[in-house]
Write a structure and sequence with these properties.
- By secondary structure, the protein is α+β, with helices and mostly antiparallel strands.
- It has three domains: 41 residues, no CATH class; 162 residues, Roll (Elastase, domain 1); 137 residues, Neutral Protease Domain 2 (Neutral Protease, domain 2, Orthogonal Bundle), CATH 1.10.390.
- The protein contains eight helices and 15 strands.
- A hairpin with a 4-residue loop joins strand 2 and strand 3.
- Helix 5 packs across helix 6.
- It binds zinc ion (ZN).
- Zinc ion binds next to helix 3 and helix 4.
Amino acid sequence: MWFPRHQALRLAYRVRLHRYEPREEWLIHVDAQTGRLLSSRENLGRVTGSGRVFDPNPVIALGDHHVLLRGERPTRFVPEEAYRTVSLTDLAGTGYLEGKRVTTRPTKGRVRRSDNRFLFLSHERGFEEVMAYFHIDRALRYLEALGFRGRRAILREPVAVNVNGTPKDNSWYSPGLKRITFGTGGVDDAEDAETILHELGHAIQDAICPGFGQSAQAAAIGEGFGDYFAASFFAHKKTPEYRTSIMTWDGITWDEIYDPPCVRRIDEAYTFESFDHGKWAEEHENGLIWSATLWEIHRALGRRIADRIIFESQFQLDAFTTFSRGARAIMDADQNLYGGKHHSRLRRLFAWRGIGPLR
Ligand SMILES: [Zn+2]
Protein backbone atom coordinates (compact mmCIF):
# COMPACT_ATOMS: atom_id res chain seq x y z
CA MET A 1 0.00 0.00 0.00
CA TRP A 2 0.98 3.67 -0.25
CA PHE A 3 1.53 5.62 2.95
CA PRO A 4 1.50 9.45 2.83
CA ARG A 5 4.58 10.98 4.47
CA HIS A 6 6.13 14.46 4.11
CA GLN A 7 3.95 15.26 1.07
CA ALA A 8 5.14 12.09 -0.67
CA LEU A 9 3.90 8.54 -0.84
CA ARG A 10 5.99 5.71 0.56
CA LEU A 11 5.48 2.09 -0.36
CA ALA A 12 4.52 0.44 2.93
CA TYR A 13 3.28 -2.69 4.65
CA ARG A 14 0.30 -2.51 6.96
CA VAL A 15 0.47 -4.94 9.89
CA ARG A 16 -2.12 -5.72 12.55
CA LEU A 17 -0.87 -6.98 15.91
CA HIS A 18 -3.20 -8.49 18.48
CA ARG A 19 -2.47 -8.74 22.17
CA TYR A 20 -4.81 -10.54 24.54
CA GLU A 21 -3.64 -9.56 28.05
CA PRO A 22 -4.37 -6.66 28.24
CA ARG A 23 -6.51 -6.57 25.18
CA GLU A 24 -4.91 -4.41 22.52
CA GLU A 25 -4.94 -4.21 18.77
CA TRP A 26 -2.18 -2.27 17.02
CA LEU A 27 -2.23 -0.96 13.48
CA ILE A 28 1.34 -0.53 12.25
CA HIS A 29 2.80 0.82 9.00
CA VAL A 30 6.33 -0.17 8.00
CA ASP A 31 8.30 1.36 5.13
CA ALA A 32 8.61 -1.40 2.50
CA GLN A 33 12.07 -0.27 1.37
CA THR A 34 13.84 0.76 4.58
CA GLY A 35 11.91 -1.30 7.14
CA ARG A 36 11.46 1.85 9.21
CA LEU A 37 8.37 2.31 11.35
CA LEU A 38 6.08 4.85 9.71
CA SER A 39 3.26 4.84 12.24
CA SER A 40 1.77 2.75 15.01
CA ARG A 41 -1.45 3.24 16.81
CA GLU A 42 -3.68 1.34 19.16
CA ASN A 43 -6.73 0.59 17.14
CA LEU A 44 -9.02 -1.14 19.60
CA GLY A 45 -12.10 1.00 19.89
CA ARG A 46 -11.66 3.44 22.73
CA VAL A 47 -15.37 3.79 23.05
CA THR A 48 -17.30 6.13 25.31
CA GLY A 49 -20.48 4.63 26.72
CA SER A 50 -22.97 5.76 29.30
CA GLY A 51 -23.93 4.40 32.67
CA ARG A 52 -26.10 5.07 35.68
CA VAL A 53 -24.32 5.25 39.02
CA PHE A 54 -24.31 6.51 42.58
CA ASP A 55 -21.63 9.17 43.10
CA PRO A 56 -20.40 8.20 45.59
CA ASN A 57 -23.54 6.77 47.21
CA PRO A 58 -27.23 7.58 47.80
CA VAL A 59 -26.65 8.97 51.31
CA ILE A 60 -24.28 11.63 50.01
CA ALA A 61 -26.37 12.29 46.90
CA LEU A 62 -29.50 12.93 48.99
CA GLY A 63 -27.61 14.50 51.90
CA ASP A 64 -29.53 12.34 54.36
CA HIS A 65 -29.46 8.70 55.43
CA HIS A 66 -32.85 8.59 57.18
CA VAL A 67 -34.84 8.61 53.93
CA LEU A 68 -32.99 5.47 52.81
CA LEU A 69 -34.02 3.35 55.77
CA ARG A 70 -37.19 1.25 56.00
CA GLY A 71 -37.27 0.61 59.70
CA GLU A 72 -33.83 -0.77 60.42
CA ARG A 73 -33.10 -1.96 56.89
CA PRO A 74 -31.83 -0.11 53.84
CA THR A 75 -34.49 0.44 51.20
CA ARG A 76 -34.39 -1.77 48.12
CA PHE A 77 -35.70 1.00 45.88
CA VAL A 78 -33.46 4.02 46.01
CA PRO A 79 -35.10 7.32 44.92
CA GLU A 80 -34.35 8.44 41.38
CA GLU A 81 -32.62 11.65 42.55
CA ALA A 82 -29.82 9.56 44.04
CA TYR A 83 -28.66 8.42 40.59
CA ARG A 84 -26.42 10.17 38.05
CA THR A 85 -25.98 9.34 34.39
CA VAL A 86 -22.30 9.48 33.50
CA SER A 87 -19.93 8.82 30.60
CA LEU A 88 -17.97 5.59 30.70
CA THR A 89 -14.65 6.37 29.05
CA ASP A 90 -12.05 4.18 27.38
CA LEU A 91 -14.28 1.14 26.98
CA ALA A 92 -12.77 -1.50 24.72
CA GLY A 93 -15.95 -1.57 22.65
CA THR A 94 -16.64 -5.27 23.23
CA GLY A 95 -20.03 -4.59 24.79
CA TYR A 96 -18.70 -5.67 28.19
CA LEU A 97 -17.60 -3.39 30.98
CA GLU A 98 -13.92 -3.62 30.20
CA GLY A 99 -11.42 -1.13 28.95
CA LYS A 100 -8.09 0.54 29.42
CA ARG A 101 -8.13 0.76 33.24
CA VAL A 102 -10.80 -1.64 34.49
CA THR A 103 -12.32 -4.98 33.58
CA THR A 104 -15.20 -6.80 35.24
CA ARG A 105 -14.10 -10.05 33.58
CA PRO A 106 -13.97 -12.12 36.82
CA THR A 107 -17.66 -11.31 37.51
CA LYS A 108 -20.18 -14.13 37.02
CA GLY A 109 -23.12 -13.33 34.74
CA ARG A 110 -21.61 -10.14 33.30
CA VAL A 111 -23.91 -7.78 31.45
CA ARG A 112 -23.33 -7.07 27.79
CA ARG A 113 -24.67 -4.08 25.86
CA SER A 114 -23.60 -3.73 22.24
CA ASP A 115 -24.66 -0.05 22.26
CA ASN A 116 -22.51 0.55 25.39
CA ARG A 117 -25.45 2.02 27.29
CA PHE A 118 -25.40 0.56 30.80
CA LEU A 119 -28.43 2.11 32.45
CA PHE A 120 -29.47 -0.02 35.42
CA LEU A 121 -31.09 0.58 38.79
CA SER A 122 -29.30 -0.56 41.91
CA HIS A 123 -31.44 -3.67 42.39
CA GLU A 124 -30.85 -4.79 38.79
CA ARG A 125 -28.03 -7.03 37.60
CA GLY A 126 -25.22 -4.99 36.10
CA PHE A 127 -25.47 -1.92 38.33
CA GLU A 128 -22.51 -2.90 40.52
CA GLU A 129 -20.41 -3.60 37.42
CA VAL A 130 -21.11 -0.08 36.16
CA MET A 131 -20.20 1.33 39.59
CA ALA A 132 -16.88 -0.50 39.64
CA TYR A 133 -16.04 0.45 36.06
CA PHE A 134 -16.91 4.14 36.36
CA HIS A 135 -15.37 4.83 39.76
CA ILE A 136 -12.11 2.95 39.24
CA ASP A 137 -11.66 4.43 35.75
CA ARG A 138 -12.29 7.98 37.01
CA ALA A 139 -10.07 7.62 40.09
CA LEU A 140 -7.20 6.28 38.00
CA ARG A 141 -7.62 9.12 35.50
CA TYR A 142 -7.33 11.53 38.44
CA LEU A 143 -4.04 9.92 39.47
CA GLU A 144 -2.81 10.19 35.88
CA ALA A 145 -3.68 13.90 35.99
CA LEU A 146 -1.63 14.23 39.20
CA GLY A 147 1.42 13.04 37.26
CA PHE A 148 1.30 9.26 37.73
CA ARG A 149 1.25 8.38 34.04
CA GLY A 150 3.57 7.23 31.28
CA ARG A 151 6.76 5.94 32.88
CA ARG A 152 5.35 6.92 36.29
CA ALA A 153 2.07 5.07 35.76
CA ILE A 154 1.01 3.10 38.83
CA LEU A 155 -1.10 0.37 37.21
CA ARG A 156 -0.11 -1.09 33.87
CA GLU A 157 -2.93 -3.59 33.52
CA PRO A 158 -6.67 -3.02 33.86
CA VAL A 159 -7.87 -3.59 37.44
CA ALA A 160 -9.87 -6.84 37.47
CA VAL A 161 -13.05 -6.79 39.52
CA ASN A 162 -15.55 -9.41 40.64
CA VAL A 163 -18.55 -7.39 41.83
CA ASN A 164 -20.50 -10.29 43.34
CA GLY A 165 -17.80 -12.69 44.48
CA THR A 166 -19.22 -13.60 47.89
CA PRO A 167 -22.62 -13.46 49.59
CA LYS A 168 -20.85 -12.16 52.72
CA ASP A 169 -20.67 -8.51 53.75
CA ASN A 170 -16.99 -8.33 52.95
CA SER A 171 -14.68 -7.14 50.17
CA TRP A 172 -10.99 -7.61 49.57
CA TYR A 173 -8.11 -7.22 47.16
CA SER A 174 -6.14 -10.37 46.38
CA PRO A 175 -2.44 -9.66 45.65
CA GLY A 176 -2.07 -13.22 44.28
CA LEU A 177 -4.90 -12.96 41.78
CA LYS A 178 -4.46 -9.17 41.30
CA ARG A 179 -8.19 -8.87 41.69
CA ILE A 180 -10.77 -6.99 43.75
CA THR A 181 -13.74 -8.99 45.03
CA PHE A 182 -16.86 -7.32 46.38
CA GLY A 183 -19.43 -8.99 48.62
CA THR A 184 -23.19 -8.71 48.39
CA GLY A 185 -24.10 -9.14 52.08
CA GLY A 186 -26.09 -6.22 53.54
CA VAL A 187 -25.87 -3.34 51.05
CA ASP A 188 -23.90 -4.63 48.04
CA ASP A 189 -20.39 -3.32 48.70
CA ALA A 190 -19.93 -2.18 45.09
CA GLU A 191 -22.98 0.09 45.47
CA ASP A 192 -20.81 2.41 47.56
CA ALA A 193 -18.00 4.11 45.63
CA GLU A 194 -16.10 4.75 48.86
CA THR A 195 -15.85 1.01 49.42
CA ILE A 196 -14.68 0.68 45.81
CA LEU A 197 -11.96 3.30 46.30
CA HIS A 198 -10.84 1.72 49.57
CA GLU A 199 -10.22 -1.59 47.76
CA LEU A 200 -8.61 0.22 44.83
CA GLY A 201 -6.23 1.70 47.43
CA HIS A 202 -5.01 -1.83 48.21
CA ALA A 203 -4.54 -2.56 44.48
CA ILE A 204 -2.53 0.65 44.10
CA GLN A 205 -0.28 -0.11 47.05
CA ASP A 206 0.32 -3.64 45.81
CA ALA A 207 1.20 -2.29 42.35
CA ILE A 208 3.72 0.16 43.84
CA CYS A 209 5.08 -2.23 46.45
CA PRO A 210 4.18 -5.90 45.83
CA GLY A 211 2.93 -7.64 48.96
CA PHE A 212 2.47 -4.40 50.90
CA GLY A 213 1.22 -4.79 54.48
CA GLN A 214 3.38 -7.58 55.93
CA SER A 215 3.81 -6.01 59.39
CA ALA A 216 1.07 -4.81 61.76
CA GLN A 217 2.00 -1.19 61.12
CA ALA A 218 2.22 -1.65 57.35
CA ALA A 219 -1.20 -3.38 57.35
CA ALA A 220 -2.66 -0.45 59.31
CA ILE A 221 -1.12 2.00 56.82
CA GLY A 222 -2.77 -0.07 54.07
CA GLU A 223 -6.22 0.28 55.63
CA GLY A 224 -5.76 3.93 56.55
CA PHE A 225 -4.53 4.78 53.05
CA GLY A 226 -7.64 3.26 51.40
CA ASP A 227 -9.94 5.09 53.81
CA TYR A 228 -8.10 8.35 53.15
CA PHE A 229 -8.27 7.87 49.37
CA ALA A 230 -12.06 7.44 49.54
CA ALA A 231 -12.51 10.39 51.91
CA SER A 232 -10.24 12.72 49.97
CA PHE A 233 -11.76 11.85 46.59
CA PHE A 234 -15.36 12.57 47.61
CA ALA A 235 -14.93 15.24 50.30
CA HIS A 236 -16.07 18.06 48.01
CA LYS A 237 -19.39 16.30 47.36
CA LYS A 238 -20.34 16.03 51.02
CA THR A 239 -22.05 18.29 53.51
CA PRO A 240 -20.03 18.92 56.69
CA GLU A 241 -22.21 16.42 58.57
CA TYR A 242 -20.99 13.54 56.38
CA ARG A 243 -17.55 14.79 55.29
CA THR A 244 -15.47 12.72 57.68
CA SER A 245 -17.68 9.62 57.56
CA ILE A 246 -16.91 7.07 54.88
CA MET A 247 -18.99 4.29 53.31
CA THR A 248 -22.22 5.78 54.67
CA TRP A 249 -24.38 3.62 52.35
CA ASP A 250 -22.41 0.41 52.85
CA GLY A 251 -22.59 1.03 56.61
CA ILE A 252 -26.06 2.60 56.83
CA THR A 253 -27.22 0.10 59.46
CA TRP A 254 -24.11 0.53 61.63
CA ASP A 255 -25.79 3.19 63.73
CA GLU A 256 -24.71 1.70 67.04
CA ILE A 257 -21.11 2.56 66.28
CA TYR A 258 -21.25 5.90 64.51
CA ASP A 259 -23.56 8.85 64.06
CA PRO A 260 -24.17 9.37 61.18
CA PRO A 261 -23.95 5.62 60.49
CA CYS A 262 -20.92 4.61 58.39
CA VAL A 263 -18.25 1.93 58.21
CA ARG A 264 -15.45 4.17 59.53
CA ARG A 265 -14.50 7.79 60.18
CA ILE A 266 -11.30 9.58 59.31
CA ASP A 267 -11.30 12.23 62.03
CA GLU A 268 -10.60 10.21 65.17
CA ALA A 269 -8.32 11.88 67.72
CA TYR A 270 -6.16 8.77 68.20
CA THR A 271 -2.40 9.04 68.48
CA PHE A 272 0.22 6.36 67.93
CA GLU A 273 0.06 5.66 71.66
CA SER A 274 -3.27 3.90 71.09
CA PHE A 275 -1.81 1.57 68.42
CA ASP A 276 -2.67 -1.99 69.42
CA HIS A 277 0.51 -4.08 69.09
CA GLY A 278 -1.24 -7.21 70.39
CA LYS A 279 -1.54 -10.49 68.54
CA TRP A 280 -5.26 -9.99 67.82
CA ALA A 281 -4.96 -6.34 66.84
CA GLU A 282 -7.37 -5.21 64.14
CA GLU A 283 -5.65 -3.44 61.23
CA HIS A 284 -8.71 -1.32 60.35
CA GLU A 285 -8.81 -0.02 63.94
CA ASN A 286 -5.09 0.72 63.96
CA GLY A 287 -5.53 2.25 60.51
CA LEU A 288 -7.76 4.97 62.00
CA ILE A 289 -4.63 6.63 63.40
CA TRP A 290 -3.04 6.75 59.95
CA SER A 291 -6.16 7.84 58.02
CA ALA A 292 -6.81 10.67 60.50
CA THR A 293 -3.22 11.84 60.08
CA LEU A 294 -3.54 11.82 56.28
CA TRP A 295 -6.86 13.63 56.54
CA GLU A 296 -5.20 16.42 58.53
CA ILE A 297 -2.59 16.74 55.79
CA HIS A 298 -5.48 17.09 53.33
CA ARG A 299 -7.07 19.79 55.49
CA ALA A 300 -3.78 21.64 55.90
CA LEU A 301 -2.49 21.49 52.31
CA GLY A 302 -5.62 20.98 50.19
CA ARG A 303 -6.66 17.98 48.16
CA ARG A 304 -4.28 18.03 45.19
CA ILE A 305 -1.08 18.79 47.09
CA ALA A 306 -1.93 16.31 49.84
CA ASP A 307 -2.83 13.57 47.35
CA ARG A 308 0.33 14.12 45.29
CA ILE A 309 2.57 13.97 48.35
CA ILE A 310 0.78 10.97 49.87
CA PHE A 311 0.73 8.90 46.66
CA GLU A 312 4.33 9.86 45.87
CA SER A 313 5.41 8.74 49.35
CA GLN A 314 4.14 5.22 48.67
CA PHE A 315 7.01 4.64 46.26
CA GLN A 316 9.46 4.79 49.18
CA LEU A 317 7.73 2.23 51.36
CA ASP A 318 8.63 -1.41 51.77
CA ALA A 319 6.14 -4.19 52.53
CA PHE A 320 7.09 -4.26 56.25
CA THR A 321 7.12 -0.51 56.80
CA THR A 322 6.29 1.44 59.98
CA PHE A 323 4.35 4.62 60.79
CA SER A 324 7.55 6.59 61.33
CA ARG A 325 9.01 5.44 58.00
CA GLY A 326 5.67 6.29 56.37
CA ALA A 327 5.87 9.79 57.86
CA ARG A 328 9.47 10.22 56.69
CA ALA A 329 8.42 9.14 53.20
CA ILE A 330 5.77 11.89 53.22
CA MET A 331 8.40 14.45 54.28
CA ASP A 332 10.70 13.24 51.49
CA ALA A 333 7.89 13.38 48.93
CA ASP A 334 7.23 16.99 49.95
CA GLN A 335 10.96 17.68 49.56
CA ASN A 336 11.02 16.16 46.07
CA LEU A 337 7.78 17.70 44.80
CA TYR A 338 7.65 21.05 46.60
CA GLY A 339 11.18 21.66 47.89
CA GLY A 340 10.08 20.91 51.46
CA LYS A 341 7.67 23.84 51.49
CA HIS A 342 5.24 22.10 53.86
CA HIS A 343 7.77 20.55 56.24
CA SER A 344 6.98 22.61 59.32
CA ARG A 345 3.24 21.97 59.05
CA LEU A 346 3.79 18.25 58.43
CA ARG A 347 6.20 18.06 61.35
CA ARG A 348 3.58 19.55 63.69
CA LEU A 349 0.92 17.10 62.49
CA PHE A 350 3.11 14.05 62.97
CA ALA A 351 4.30 15.30 66.37
CA TRP A 352 0.71 15.71 67.59
CA ARG A 353 -0.08 12.14 66.49
CA GLY A 354 3.01 10.80 68.23
CA ILE A 355 4.42 9.50 64.93
CA GLY A 356 8.19 9.64 64.60
CA PRO A 357 11.05 10.20 64.88
CA LEU A 358 11.11 11.94 61.52
CA ARG A 359 14.91 11.91 61.27
ZN1 LIG B 1 -8.98 -2.82 53.39
